[in-house]
Write a structure and sequence with these properties.
about 220 residues, mainly alpha, Heme Oxygenase, Chain A, about 80% helix, about 0% strand
């Protein structure tokens, strides 16, 4: 990445990524110490999150200045349904979680806050701001997946999750969006670059918060 805009974005969140790798949810996936109830809670919330994330990607697609960007983000939005949602469907069955119960589940506070922020950023900001807001979910999951893939897990369900996000196919999509950011970077005024960085850092923080939410099985206080 060198001196690319994406390198600048990633470096701006190096502290957050280090905190993610150190989180007991992530560590617990590889040593098997993550409580099954926490993983179950996370899977349900992630299924709820992905529905809104697909809408965020579709919104970014609608704002792309070229047909290539529209096609790519629309394809990725559809891919969430085809690939990640199928992973969740199979995991839900293995975890004895009723899919109908997921449909009726409430978003935890962090899930609602994260998805609300995403949709506000992609619908209210520029195309570049939208790219900056959605990119951490791609990139951080890919980096975490690769990291965990090298460690493995004694829990077959956790390993299945690791295999999905550490796969080359998932990495290829992340690289496509990273390339978009790099193409956009040189043409952005400094004020817009700052907004992209702000969104990138905010949603990176939400990624840490999402795993922390799962670990704590977060509920509404009232």
């Amino acid at each position: 990445m060198g001196d690319s805009f994406s390198a600048d974005l990633w470096q701006s969140t190096a502290d957050i990524y280090a905190a993610i790798l150190a989180h007991p949810f992530i560590a617990g996936l590889t040593d098997g110490s993550l409580p099954q109830e926490a993983f179950n809670f996370y899977v349900v919330q992630d299924a709820l999150y992905l529905r809104w994330y697909a809408q965020a990607l579709a919104a970014v697609a609608s704002r792309a200045p070229d047909t290539a960007g529209t096609e790519m983000f629309a394809r990725h939005a559809a891919g969430i349904v085809d690939v990640e949602m199928s992973l969740h469907a199979s995991l839900l069955a293995e975890l004895d979680i009723d899919a109908h119960a997921v449909a009726g589940a409430d978003e935890a506070p962090t899930t609602l806050a994260y998805t609300s922020y995403l949709l506000a950023a992609v619908r209210g900001g520029s195309y570049a701001e939208g790219v900056g807001a959605v990119l951490p979910c791609y990139w951080i999951y890919w980096e975490v997946g690769k990291y965990l893939l090298g460690l493995g897990s004694p829990n077959r369900r956790y390993q299945k999750w690791i295999d999905t996000y550490g796969a080359e196919e998932f990495g290829a999509e992340a690289l496509e969006v990273i390339a978009v950011a790099d193409r956009l970077g040189p043409g952005l005024a400094e004020a817009e670059r700052d907004m992209v960085r702000r969104h990138f850092r905010a949603t990176s923080r939400y990624e840490w918060m999402f795993w922390d939410m799962g670990y704590r099985q977060e509920t509404w206080p009232v």
